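User: My collaborator sent over this chain with a note saying "see what the structure looks like." That's all I know about it. Can you take a look?
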Amino acid sequence: MHPSEATGSRIVVEKDKVIHVDTSALPDVSPGPLPSLGPESAPAVESIAARDAAHFFALLLKGIKSINLYRHAEERFTEFISPAHTALARFLHKYKSLPLRLSPYMLQYKGSPVYHEKSKENLTYKLYRDGMRYVVFRTGISRGELLRFSILSSGTYSERELLREDMVTRFWKEDFDCIDQIVVDGFGFGELSDDEVQLEVEKIIGYLRAQLSSKSQDTTRFARFSLQDLILELTEVEQIRGGIVTGRPASPQDRARIQDELLGEEQNSILSKVVTIVFQVLEVEAEEKDYSMLMEVLVQLLDLYLVSDDLCGVIHLSKCFAFLADKPLPFERRQSIKHMHSEFLSRMVEPQRLSQIGQYLQLSRDIDVHATKSYLLFCRENEIDILLDMLVQNERKEAKRVIIDTLVRVGKDKIDVFAARLGDPSSVVVRDMLTIIFEINPPNKLALVSQCYSHPSVMIRLEALKAMTLDHSRESLQYIQKAFNDENTQIRMGALRALSKRSPVVASQQFILIMKGSRFFGREVRERNAVVVALGETRTPEALEYLSGLFSPKASLFNRSRQNELKMLAVIGLQAMRTLEAFHAVNGQIQNRSHSIEVLKACQRAAHRIKDYLEKEHNCG
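Assistant: Without extra context I'll predict from the sequence alone. Here is the result:
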């Protein structure tokens, strides 16, 4: 099938091509604002029809405005569009069809303007720019179809979105039943004069529009043309695609700007146009012998998207299969397309292509998180090892998060694969595995995590303690308390922090018992400080009462040093608490002359720091 043979109620004429049609076989349609669609009507009747068409568009614009104002109330969209639909139905009942000619800022019905808005955000500019020249509304249009047309034509799309999928393609995907369009996608002039070209094009478009408006049962729904290469020649402008020249010739600066825009547009949109053509061929004319060739074309398109880091294009390519699945196609063709879709998805997750995704996650300046997740979710259990290697090799936080989310979804029934890597010597790898295990949340997750307690690496054992704080069962509490007796000081200090986060009430009671114990002052200074800091971070009334009470006992000749040390520990604990009650407790000791100079200065510093913290919290709140 020739690439230009597009289907649907449209004519597509490619850039740098000329249409070869035997115009003698066509009815003579003279160039003008709008070729006639049927029998001649009296001017007065046409004026009334134009006024009715303008009234319909006024109601339609009002409905679109309401839709834009109440985007959250989708259930009311049909209500907003109902007045316009009623007016359109009344018009179509009387005149059978509503053909409209597009210009960049205007819609015309038989030469009479029915809509005019001179801004690029209007209903027609995007459609005209992408080649649409006529829109025809037919009898039987439903409210839902009119609503889809309204949302599509009034939508706000970025330049990137329009380059990937232009408005003509979006209209084709909507598959309207009672809305037809004629599209011209660029012209080549060749040896013809401007007048001859205008005449030939107007004849072709007029003929097609007349066929689209026919009342007979054999209405022509689409047209095909054989095209030949030709060079585009225009005075003052070497090449124009989607440009509009009015009033003055293009300056050298204008030409350079247009050429740059054209180059960028061609580079970004050619793939999407090829995708559209391939799927149109699949839908309409593909035979069994063509499927292997089309499959190779799709795989090459997949690789081109991957090389250009356009993952959105890949996702769009995959969704086109789902779009075809909703079409009423013959059973054999539907089965063939289903098989192609399955093979395409398997090609997407082949090792070399997943490796390309890994490089994208490592090197891309701005990661498209949504598109990358959508791509990786096509992986299955067979690709878990590849994803794990990708995770180990990647150090970017956002990239690791994307891969972990994928592994949680894909590997929920393969928990043993992640548990096997808990013995890895790298603490980073173990931390990632613990994150995956806890997010999958298997019944034996705590037993799996506890395996890390026997790991020779202190960092990995600390990671296991941190992971235990994420679980709220009694069993996790027991695992944390078990670490209090570890021979390593770092592990014991890690257990203190873990318990204060896991269960503040239990932690405050445990820490108070530790401080009251006879072995407390036999611990290292940093461990003693860690105990009171963890006690303060619990922020419980018991912790506040105990720490404040350490200021009360008077020092004697024999225990002055010990009492002074307890008071310094109390200051450290209250500062870690960082509450208003802790501030009052510390501030109240600043004038107490029974304390040593060291304790008084420590109280003053702690009160100042707690005050600063509370003020910042208040300002942020």
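A starting point for your reply to your collaborator: Residues 1-42, 217-247 have pLDDT under 50 and may be disordered.
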